[in-house]
Please model this.
Amino acid sequence: MSEQGIGAALTRVEARDKVTGAARYTADVVLPGMAYAALVSSQVSAGRLRSLDVSAAKAAPGVLGVFSHLDRPTWHRVPAIPYFGETRMPFSDDRIHHAGQHIAIVVASTRQQAAHAAALVKAEYEAGKPVPTLEKALPSAYVAAQGNYVNFPQETVRGTPEEALAGSPVRVKAEYRTALISHAPIEPSVTTATWEGDELTLYDTSQAVVVHRGLVATAFGLPEDKVRLVCPLIGGAFGAKTHVWGHTLLVALAARRLGRPVQVVITRKQMFTTTGHQPPTVQRIEIGAERDGRLRVITHDSTNSTSFVAERPENTVLSSVATYAVPNLRTRVRLARMNFGTPTAMRTPGDGPGSFALECALDELAHELGADPVELRRRNHADVHPQSGKPWSGKNLLECYRIGAERFGWHRRDRRPGTRREGNDLIGYGMATARRVEHHRAAESTVDIRTDGGVVVRTATQDIGGGTLTTMIQVAADALGVAPDKVTITVGDTDLPPGAPTFGSITSGSNGSAVRLAAQDARGAAIRLAVGDKGSPLHGLAEDAVDVRDGRLFAKADPRRGETYAVLLTRNRVNPLRGNGKYSPAESQYETSTFGAHFTEVRIDRDLPRVRVVRHLAVIDCGIVLNTKTARNQAQGGIIGSIGVALMEELRQDPVSGRALAPALTDYHVPVNADIGQIDVHFVNKPDHNSNPLGAKGLGEICSIGVSAAVANAVFNATGRRIRDLPITPRRLL
Amino acid sequence: MRPFHYSRPGSVGEAVRALGADPGAEVIAGGTDLVTLLRDGVRAPSQLVDVNRLGLDRLSWQPNGSVHIGAMCRNAVDDSRLRRAYPGLVQALRSGASPQIRNRASFGGNLLQRTRCAYFRLPEFDCNKRNPGSGCAALNGDGAQTALFGASPSCVAVHPSDCAVALVALNAVVHVEGPAGARRIPIEEFHVLPGETPQRETALRRDELVVAIELPPAPPSHYLKFRDRTSFAFALVSAAVAVEVSGGTVRSARIALGGVAAKPWRCLAAERELVGKPFTAPSIAKAGDAATEGAKPRPGNEYKVELVRRVVRRALTELGNA
Ligand SMILES: Cc1cc2nc3c(=O)[nH]c(=O)nc-3n(C[C@H](O)[C@H](O)[C@H](O)COP(=O)(O)OP(=O)(O)OC[C@H]3O[C@@H](n4cnc5c(N)ncnc54)[C@H](O)[C@@H]3O)c2cc1C
Model:
């Protein structure tokens, strides 16, 4: 831990505002003359609109305008996917592709008037026959051609998988299913749009203001610099705000037509139906191994649902491609279209469901072999990337296993399932590996040192609740040699230097590197200013003979000789002194990933079988940890989210219409406090400088990956029952 | 949501008159259920009659040891005598919803809350309860939550209340008042099975008000609720049991189930297995088996049959151990 900030367990800088209600979220934005919108949703899952009668809505009190496909909005172009989720622009035509699809937008003077008028819009449908579920869509599953979202190999072959399987002394084969699940952030998606002439400002719940600006500009045919995106704090996103969804464009459109600012807060139900979800998957895995547990071959065949207006494969198979040293491999991903909204990134896209299948299959293999699950994984450790053969930039997975097994007390596990009991409870232990590719993105930042000694970081990233504001301050403080409480940060505005998106676990590494470079630039400039300034006690020293601590520059050889940034800049009338940082990830000779190991203990009442995770331990290798407090918080949150995925999360669909049956937080179960036992998180905390200048890697997703498999493996250990379908509800255990 | 009138009468008589004068009027108590139904377009009353100012929020103990719980007493009610006399009721209340909701939710509203059947709560589905004659989309739909007992071809929904289940085991009486005066409805007759009129859920008339719930002195009671998560979830199956044992023999038993029918489901067969027997594991096991008598599982809810057996056994066992 550096005394200047990195690693320190600082409380989030916005914490007080959040708990006192002073924090401003996007729905708190109020502009003069602002009107409010409500979106009208399709009631049917497929077909077309035969008619849309908006007369009653238009006549309702306070209504300023009602727009629909009848107004033929002229979109300039369909923005490139990603990060617009769909190939069809909203209101393009009368076609219905899923229930909940926006079919009209009503704008009124108050939110209530808009909601009331929206209920008066009368739609007549020519209902089509929907493909309601993944199950019904499976017969027409297909392998998608590359393009758009389809940006990873849909099929991979390594070695000679069929021969290897035929020659394997031990084989396991199973089919796993994960459920349709939803992000369910507390804050719904919100957009406020205002035009000044040809310039559009959007206050939007966006996980990527910079990327989304370009997209919005494309849709409206504007140069990028005519669009400004502002995103204050986000009240949870989990992927639901990685893409621009229809409502954002529709609100901008309505604001333009009406010539006044318009805001929409989409409803909870619309959160479930129009801002993406993680699609259900069906995954078949077959493993061939030697008797000593060495893997010979893995085949992994995965199908996920997608909508009729987007092809989005879930990259589940990467788990099999990139986790273990296996000489032979075959993977394939297929899509099956159903009449439901478009899926999107959620929590841990790909690796979440993928690791569930792979890590359960490994547990099945361990059982078959009579081997210890940790030992089996050690034996198949990938010393280099198993597909590319490149070295890892940094990898401490073996240490994760060692620390985890020791701290958890793994040796107490009885490998005979169903043998440990206490009263009515069956007790089981399970574990799994976590692995996530580390992505890099270009990012820029400035760091200003002011004459009062204060520091301002400016970068267009955003804080979605993970603690980014705080960690970026710590990075700047560390590189500048000032106390973190001297640093403030401004984010979430495209007027700032372009920062990184806050998804895909790229913020810490990429944006953190940009901030660090900017701070180093400012620090270097200050030192140069001092050593060249006759008025400075440091005059004449070599630059590298000067160090900075607590905002004071001093001679390394004689720490009494020095002065503060404030004094230096005031005397020189430089205000502010600006450092610029531009991080551009280069082609690397390395493969970069984050790693971890999860260990979990479940207890299950044998008569009334609800799985309780009483104890969970995660050991995580994500490079250097920027803030142990926010990191632990993120990891615990990620683990809890995944316990939910393992045990209860499922957006059930009506088998006839495909419509969501419980698009509400009452019935869409996520864990409550009483569901959660003790959660311990341990960080390996070794910097990975081969990955980026900061040595920090993303934590957002790695903490969640493998948790659902660890739980399922523990359930097997407790009961002898292998549940291959998520979630593991009481119903499945009875 | 449709605009509506709002009135706040100061007496029961005034409230009854307000209901009588406007056929579209509905009572609002804590609003925890009704407001969501208004929001989702499931209900569209012309008027809301607020019953929060009628003085119905008192708990009064009677000389004979029974208690009258005012209809506006909150589900968060915390009364030590109530806890001692009717532990099953207090456990049922505590197992419901969340502390915030229990602080608002009233006894009257709890009895009259509507089913959680998704097909009822989402207006895009056909539902005979919401829209008589439109059909029941749940029949061919997701059956996981549907009824084991007493369902009909027009409705397979279950009643969601925990409190009402305990009230059946405790032999409660519902006091109501209407234009023709007051009447008392035994709790078992309060909720009705769907038959061909699932829109009719209770014996309460449209212009009547629940004013109180009367509990006679009761034997030891217990409530057990089994659900998908530890708290803040409706029951998959629950059981309320009230058993009087003397001299090692069961003198009386009342057993009611939640989550399995359009009303709290009284298990007479299970009660018969207990009465006159020792209150021990073998008779408890038989009672559990008997509780499933007459169950008609439907696709998707078969798991509830085994659950009924186990929940009843566990509830009785825990009562016996208490
Ligand atoms: C998220 C959530 C979770 C919940 N979980 C549970 C649970 O686990 N278990 C459980 O049992 N319940 C649960 N509930 C339901 C809750 O108990 C009910 O919403 C509550 O009891 C209703 O009481 P209220 O006073 O708010 O009624 P309101 O919502 O005001 O009214 C409900 C109905 O009762 C009628 N009504 C109310 N009072 C009277 C009266 N005195 N006379 C005549 N009619 C009247 C109203 O007209 C309306 O039709 C949950 C509710 C929510 C929102």
